[in-house]
Amino acid sequence: MSAWLTRHIPKIAVAPSLAAVLFFVYGFIAWTGYVSLTRSRILPRYQLEGLDQYAKLFRTPRWDVAMENLLVFGVLFIAVSVALGLLLAILLDQRIRAEGAIRTVYLYPMALSFIVTGTAWKWILNPGLGIEAVVRSWGWEDFRFGWLVDPELAIYTVVIAGVWQASGFVMALFLAGLRSVDQEIIKAAMVDGVSLPRIYASIIIPSLSPVFLSAIIVLAHLAIKSFDLVIALTGGGPGYATDLPATYMYAMAFSRGDLGQAAASATVMLMTVAAIIIPYLYSQLRQSHD
Amino acid sequence: MTARGLLYLLLVVFVAYYMLPLFVMVITSLKDLDEIRAGSLMSPPDRVSLESWGTAWSSACAGILCEGLQPFFWNSVKMVVPAVLLSTLLGAVNGYALSQWRFRGANLIFALMLFGCFIPFQVVLLPMARTLGLLGLAGSLSGLVLVHVVYGLGFTTLFFRNFYVTVPTELVKAAKIDGAGFFTIFLRIFLPLSPPIIVVTVIWQFTQIWNDFLFGVSFSQAGTQPVTVALNNIVNATTGVKEYNVDMAAAIIAGLPTLIVYVIAGKYFIRGLTAGSVKG
Question: Which fold has domain A60-289?
Fold first, then answer.
């Protein structure tokens, strides 16, 4: 008995966590997936009805808006955060004074809740009180900056706040990557008289491709999960102009009482994340075995 | 202007850009309402007034409760402390077992846990709400602690596993020959090695759980909401006069704990961030 226990104790130690993950992650995913195939409204019904909920979801204009917003927000959020993060990392990599302090400033938004920073951005972007009012008080009386309340443009304010929050993090990733580039190659190129911008463009930046991949994956995953930011900044409005899949799902689950739609939209979100994350995790785990 | 001068100018412009929202929050929280309406977003207050901080802390209305952020701040503390301790402890044991006692299936278990970190939590909201109800934990802080422990496990396990995997397995072999068991080796050898990764994990979990909004808003009820949910209720209250200075003071109060931790131990926070994205 005790020999058996000694042999199996590592498995026993992991068992509670594994059981929790199997139940709360995989069991719950299965439940949600199942409910998405039923006609559940406020209460779950367990009679399978096929893919009706998905057909209904893809017919719903509000879901279309949410997916379109996710595309616009996701592409801009990732592209601008990566560009800005890379620029900041290169600037900071020039042996500058007070690097630590500047880095701390660039990265602090990441330590704050979107709800906290959203409150500030909502105020800054408010047409009556924020930037618009400031620029007008400088004498430019016709200046208009009402994106926050414009259904067509409000999603771009979410991009502004999202980039502000996440670009410092991308900077940290790239800075770590820049610091691990082989300095000998750079010295050799400099001796050969290659200019610094060319060294960056043709030697250093191409060597950072794994960092690009990590940054893009993490940002894509953040974009798909974005919920707090929209809630704090626009509440999904005006109307549902800034809805994202995450806020759509929440509205269906908790204010519309439509479990079937909530489950179907959550399942679509999961599929999207899985399509990005699983190949990435697989390649990362494979690498560590070689 | 020299290239060097331009470089520093650019860096300073970006410092201003990142500081702007925090700066605006602080100066707005120190103004009174008349000055906010009359003045400009970026002008410092004429008269510094701490009144809005007092209101935000003890009498602003969040939903139906008008006791300020204070009760919700303590809710967050009561939720964060046990959730961080439990998830860190479990992560340490898991990471140690999965990296040093490579039993069959250890890698599969790790992969299953890891994927759990990345799922959009929308996919577990509905069954979790029902499960908390069945367990009698609906709308309670204990329920939120359970939720945060369960969905924090993936990251804490990842941190400890990737840390312990660098320790040579010969250490465990030698200790086993000396007759030491699983937990003895953990307590005597691995735990003393662990302070750096414990700090990273605790800071990561603290920041994640303190800043959480989705679980807080889904699984709490009036009186048990964490501070982020209460802040959102204060800011988006539709009744009464809009007190922007109180909103800003409340936002700073809600963000202060994680901001302080970041300023004091930013190095460890960044280590957690990068470890969470660059796996291996």
Answer: MetI-like fold (1.10.3720)
